[in-house]
Amino acid sequence: MRVMIISEVIQDDGFDGAAKMKERLQRRNQTRIEDAERRKEEKESRSVAEEKDEYFSKMFGEQRAAIEELLSGCSGADRAAVSQKLEEATAKTAQLQKFLNDSVLFLTQYELRQSQAALQKLQASLAEAREKALPKKKFAFRARSKAADKVSAPEPAPPAAGSGEVDSAAAAEQSGFSNMDNEFLTKTSEEIQKRDVLLTHLTNCKVRLFGSPSTLHLKHIHGCEVLCGPVSSSVFVDHCSNSTLGFPCQQLRTHNTTDTQVYLHVTSRAIIEDCQGVSFAPFSWSYPNLDQDFSVSGLSRERNNWNQVDDFNWLAAGTPSPNWTVIPEADRKTSWDP
Question: What is the top-level taxon of the source organism (predicted)?
């Protein structure tokens, strides 16, 4: 009898052990299957990302090379050919900017910065090529009377401080103001629409640019308030201090700028380099034809990355750059009329 009981216990333990062993094997097999599926999904995800990166690099490189070829073809060409090449290069550059904007979501920060830097270089080359080729003579400047009469006064050399406004007849593709102090300056939509606008060496001036320029360049701006309508491509700021700026644009690139407020609407990401004390808030200036100028520019009203700023001098991951801040709502300017 005792032997039979022991045998039955052994048999019962054997059955339980086999069941537990089977259960463990099933769990282990299920884990292997899940791991295999996860590795497969990760591999597919990496493959898709690599394909996107490869496609972006290929397309960006090809479009960039096409623009560079157009710019190099301007050398030695006649005025009509140069004008056509520059117009085509401008269109292709805008398309390249849009392609970059649409690819932001899957690009790494390094790839994004490299691409933005390359695009900025292209845009600067385009502006330089236009400045050299159209027209083929130096800009003429003209004095501004108190009654705002605009009498043309060509000079062979750059103007002295306070002397004037770029002659739009001599520089049909470019408009702006240069070397002025303590002035209230305006440009109408007809004067700047689809042109490059250059503001340089202005001190204690208030500037209002109504319309949609192609690009906006600000150089050596001190103690000024500059407001501009929607810029269809890029704004470049260099050596600006103690100023207030406001504009919508596709891209903002700021260098060597200190203690300056920027009221911004930007559809990509703003870039600062060698800057300190720059602060940002949403673009808030308004004028009667602003909606129409937004349509002309092609900028999205809904997409505004005003507080997404890349500082090329600050690479500490996870730590905010000390070189820029957001303007507190209570301190933001809401009234712009002089």
Answer: Eukaryota
